[in-house]
Amino acid sequence: MGAVFAMQGLGQFTAAIIALIVTAGFKESLITAKSAAHCSGVCGLAVDKMWRVIVGFGAVPGCIALYFRLTIPETPRYTFDVARDVDKAREDVKAYVQGKPEGHPDEINRAAVLQDARIRLDPPKASWADFWAHYGTWKHGKILLGTAGSWFFLDVAFYGLGLNNAIILSAIGYSGGKTMYNIFYNTAVGNLIIVCAGAIPGYWVTVATVDTIGRKPIQIGGFAILTILFCIIGFAYHKLSEGGLLALYVIAQFFFNFGPNATTFIVPGECFPTRYRSTSHGISAASGKVGAIIAQCVFGPLRTRGAKPKATGAAASPWLNHVMEIFALFMLCGVFTSLLIPETKRKTLEELAGEVPGTPEYNAISAGHTRKDSYGGVRASNSSRGAPVEETIMEKSNV
Question: How far apart are CA 276 and CA 57, in angstroms?
């Protein structure tokens, strides 16, 4: 999952490259205007075409992902854990090993095994009632609170830091220009430098260390370092040189990605039961987007508080230092919510979901390792070897 998320950095890099190519393609039209105020006629038409091309290219990966999502078969883990269709899961595993999309079991045997599973097991059904019952206990609810809260606090600062991009580009000499062509070209190159200097290295350091250092230490360490960085930027903002501000910005980008920006995506995809993994990951991600909205709608206007009309540069953002101080507080809150999440390093999804007997996380009821007795009650299941009933049923279907 770390490598999957690291593609975000390559996406940012590709976006800057496409912007650079489009700018070069419309150079002759863009050099006719000295600034945005004078960009009309052929310049205005060129800019109109440019943003349409850039947005259109952004839709291409989405369309490709949508196709694969609509055609991908269900995973055997879901088929077994949630649907309890043991025979179908067995055939799917065989098919995947052979490079086929899905298996086709004998329907008569499949129906018999499926009926046996339903009689002998009492697995929790995926429903809102069971969802609230599951997360209504502190043991499970704190994990969802930890993943959702961490993602929320992260995205407030992660997207809010984008408000600082213009100042950083100015610090490295990549803002403004004599013509609209120079302005667009400098902006694209400046974004490339920032992405390559901080973001991409951070993503891939996470990929290299996430299974050795662990998810939780990386997330807590990232939040802690970001708290310190934002405190320095905020409280010493007016004393920092342009080079110092650039260095802190690049370091912050590195520890966002070698830190909570990667792990807040990875952990929710691992630590929840199969029947609620997607829902819980979605709730966590949605919390992050709420944080992004707050960053744009609240902190965007807040940074310009007290600015004089037509002010430019640093004078246009007189409250930016205070915004950085507030972001430091959000990062500190992220440290505490990260304490609620489990360490998922080198653990199977079944173990994390509490489905493996003998592990600290094991919960017979949550795992569905129960069956109805002759009096209609529910008791923990046991085979002659002390294994859960699933193992017995899997043996009967020759998995």
Answer: 34
Q: Are 397 and 84 in contact (CB under 8 A)?
A: no
Classify residue 366: in a domain, yes or no. Answer: no
Number of domains the chain is built from: 1
Establish if 326 belongs to a structural domain: yes
- Give long-range contacts, CB 8 A cutoff, 24+ apart: 237-245: 237/320, 237/321, 237/324, 238/321, 242/170, 242/171, 242/172, 243/171, 245/167, 245/168, 245/171
If phi over 0 gives left and psi between -120 and 50 gives alpha, with beta otherwise, what is residue 376? left
Query: Structural domain of residue 232, as residue ranges?
Result: 2-71+131-338
3-state secondary structure of 370: strand
Amino acid identity, residue 60? Answer: V
Query: Is this model's pTM higher than 0.85 or not?
Result: no
Which secondary-structure segment (H or E) carries 209? helix 200-209
Query: Is residue 89 within 8 Å of 76, Cβ to Cβ?
Result: yes
Residue 298 has pLDDT above 80, yes or no: yes
